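Board notes, transcribed. Complex of a protein with nicotinamide-adenine-dinucleotide.
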Amino acid sequence: MDSKSFNPFEMAQEQFDKVADLLDLDQATRDLLRNPIREYHFSIPARMDDGSVKIFKGFRVQHNDARGPGKGGIRFHPQETADTVRALAMWMTWKCAAVDIPLGGSKGGVVCDPHSLSMREQEQICRGWIRQIARDIGPITDVPAPDVMTSAQHMLWMLDEFETIRGGKYPGLITGKPVGMGGSLGRKEATGYGVIFTVREALKELGIRPDGTTASVQGFGNVAQHAIELYQQIGGTVMSVSCWDQDDQTTYAFKKKDGINLDELRKIADRFGGIDKGKAKDLGYEVLPGDLWLEQDVDILIPSALENQINLENVNKISKRVKIIAEGANGPTGPRADEVIQERGIFMIPDFVANAGGVTCSYFEQVQSNMNYYWERDQVLGKLDVKMTSAFIAVSDLAKKRKLYMRDAAYVIAVSRVAQICRDRGWV
Ligand code: NAD
């Protein structure tokens, strides 16, 4: 599973089975939590700019809603599969439980490549996605959000379509809306900043001051850019970043001797987080194809792109200097690679703790939208820091107390919370 046959849902189930054994869960609870409660697969007809109609495949998976309405993003990706969405929905259940917000886990997606679609065509897909699922989502049932290759603009089109169908204003339907149109200040930086709140806490535990540390980041999208921004503010230096190159259909790492300059790279990146290779070379960057972000001699690795990026084929390339891996992405480490990382004693901050800042802030956005009262950015980020820090400390305390790997400790906390409410509701 660590190679090309990688299936994210099998990975999510394998992680769950391990913790189900640790918690000695009964069979009914295992059967309930191992699979989504509901899922929807649909076809979305969209009229292209040339007048033709194209049919896109769409999904919404609701893994578990015992703790509250489902919550989870919508991904636009050419390699999207039902199993990717199932895995991501399941991880959302654990993530909301890990940070203890009253929400369940869902995820959605469309098989499409926004690189080759005009904004008008993307609008058709967003509206079409809502038309297929409007009956089965809503502020008190299931609340979508942006994810890979979707943005505030996509969320607003979706909200507009939903309100047109339902007749009325439902700002709590969706999060990640533009600021000024129901969006929360702080949402765009929340996931990346949240990653660094947990890195800061991990460094504290290891007795290392953040200034003077170095990191290598995979990805240069929303999560990566904001993680880099805050990491630099606390004194760290990012030695390299990497991104997907649409023209060459491969990845490139961008390196600079004294560390990358976030502002100059932002200026030459597109809206999908792809960096212009030629312009980067002109600015003095080394541009190297492949997995090199992983091999850097740095203190911290921050994978912030996609699933299964650290696997059995490359895990041994991680430098001896690496002390912390903070998973900005969902599921970036395969189970076999995880075993190697655990054996090596690298401090792992697992995805559903490290990147929970996004959903936590989405929850704050829901609260604000439902109250129709908006908080200042500092208030939002302050509340976010409190939530992320307490979730991190709870996981790390349990890991120490029960001598567990951090991922297992996070799973124990999250799965017990969900299993408990399923029992209390009388479901199992
Ligand atoms: P994004 O679309 O803004 O950026 C993705 C980045 O990854 C781009 O820079 C792209 O070039 C790069 N990339 C894609 N494939 C790559 C590869 N094979 N190698 C190297 N780089 C590659 O996406 P995002 O919102 O930053 O999300 C990144 C990850 O974080 C995803 O796993 C997502 O599910 C997760 N996540 C996002 C949020 C959020 O709030 N955006 C919240 C929680 C988790």
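The two ends are 31 Å apart (CA to CA). The chain has a mean pLDDT of 96.
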